[in-house]
Amino acid sequence: MNTQVALWVGFNVFVAAMLAIDLGVFHKKDHAVSPKEAGAWTGVWVTISLIFCAGIWYFSGREPALQWLTAYVVEYSLSVDNLFVFLMVFGYFRVALEHQHRVLFWGIIGAFIMRAVLIIAGTALVKEFHWLIYLFGAFLVFTAVKMFFSKEDDDADPEQKLVVRFSRRVLPVASQGQGSRFFTREDGRLKVTPLFLVLLVVEATDLLFALDSIPAVLGISTDAFIIYTSNVCAILGLRSLFFVVASLMDKFHFLKVGLSGILGFVGVKMLITYFNIHVPIAISLLVIAGILAASIVASLIWPKAPEALEGPAGTKLPEQEHERAER
Model's pTM, two decimal places? Predict the structure, then answer.
């Protein structure tokens, strides 16, 4: 077994072991994840990720490590926008707090598989057809503009998603949920529970999200191992981060503007390589971190008006849902 294969196998075995410990030991029984517990797990995943980055620096050098760290920051920051969609999905389907972790866990398993395929295919295509970099760059700039002008309630009604409508037509759906189970028997037939439909929506959302984030990290590195591991490490911390920021999403209302700025910056960075202009990776990392920090600070300095706390069609936004659950 050569070194490259050993790295891929070793990394995936480690991730599988950590997930098994997570679900089989610490979350064996369904329970509502508290902000304190989620904060501790977020610290664990971030620490593991930084240790992994330090290992890349030690064994491969400064440049690959900075590429990995930049890709990790981009992926993690873009993931925050995805969390808002998850919150709306869970609120729409009225998923109990104690079942949300299990849905996110199995959603991540599917995300690993989808991203591995997309990353391997994407890096191979870019190396073979370099002009795809410019296509990806233009796509990111377009996505950035679209995100900047999008409204928060664009994904407020998951029932209108094609995946839900299609699933209800082709799958036997149980009339009632069965706790955290995805399958149940009803009237003598094996049926999927409504929670399984939630899982499908989460998977579909992550796939659409990956179509934005993977081209973004391809603008940072074309090394499949760096892209894949940075993606996986960011996703591993996404579940715990979800519960940390669930009550804070509405406070950081300028975050979407910042995320669109990050996508736009990476897109332009990819496009200007046509003129042999290359932005150093250290500068890219500082710019991305600066945009992210500025959007958070701006949200704290200029908070959202109280009248904007009411969601579309009278629905409650995540912060209100969290307060209701606390009561």
Answer: 0.68
